[in-house]
Amino acid sequence: MQQPIKVLLVDDHEMVRIGLAAVLDTEDGIEVVGEASNGQDGIRMAQAYKPDIVLMDLVMEGMDGVETTKKLLELYPECKVIVLTSYIDDSKMYPVIEAGAFSYLLKTSRAGEIADAIRAAARGQSVLESQVAAKMMNRFRQPQTPKQKPPHEDLTEREMDVLQRLAEGKSNQEIADELFIGIKTVKYHITNIFSKLGVDDRTQAAIYAHKHGLAD
């Protein structure tokens, strides 16, 4: 005979736990092995009862669902956490999924849907409530903002040569002598450097160069 799927309930609302336990106890192949009213007790009971599935609330006093999920899976990675919550906002949904939650359901789900999600999780199949799945798909469909390149990448090779010597504290004449160019050309390059880097003077340009590893 196949062993029942052992389920632990972690929710700080007693009536929610009572209702879930009553419903799940009528489902074939599912056994509620314990109920915890907070994250700390949930972790202790999970270690004691070794449930296959943990039905986890998100908003609880003390250790919330995200922290509890993370800690629980560190200590007992074989179990699968199904989030059962009233919240669907990004600030709660994405962190708990990143923490390792296996499925995400809303408390508006029907009893049969919760039981089906438990059975699916026991088979290794994740279930996302339709609103949650839609939000995740929309998040990944949004175009990613390309990273802006640092301003110094717009400098020409000669401007980079001037910037490096400027950062070393050399005068315009010294820069001109080292690069075999005229004073006016040095001033022209410095003006371009200030404009491209968005700085106002030699000191700021030197600080930028050192900050970005462009000079010794």
Describe the overall structure.
This protein has 216 residues and is of the alpha/beta class. 51% of the residues lie in helices and 12% in strands. The protein has a five-stranded parallel sheet with strand order 2-1-3-4-5, with helices on both faces. α2 packs parallel to α3. The radius of gyration is 30 Å and the shape is rod-shaped. The model has no long low-confidence stretch (mean pLDDT 90). This is Response regulator transcription factor.
Strand % is: 5-15%
What's the count of strands?
5
Side by side, the strands of the main sheet go 2-1-3-4-5
Report the CATH architecture of the largest domain.
Answer: 3-Layer(aba) Sandwich
Molecular shape: rod-shaped
Q: Number of folding domains?
A: 2
| Superfamily (CATH H level) name of the largest domain | Response regulator
Mean pLDDT: 90
Calculate Rg over CA atoms.
Answer: 30 Å
Q: What is the share of helical residues?
A: 40-55%
CATH fold topology of the largest domain: Rossmann fold
How many H/I helical runs? 10
> Main beta sheet, described?
5 strands, parallel
What are the segments in which pLDDT stays under 50 over at least 5 consecutive residues? none
The class by helix and strand makeup works out as: alpha/beta
The first-to-last residue Cα distance is: 74 Å
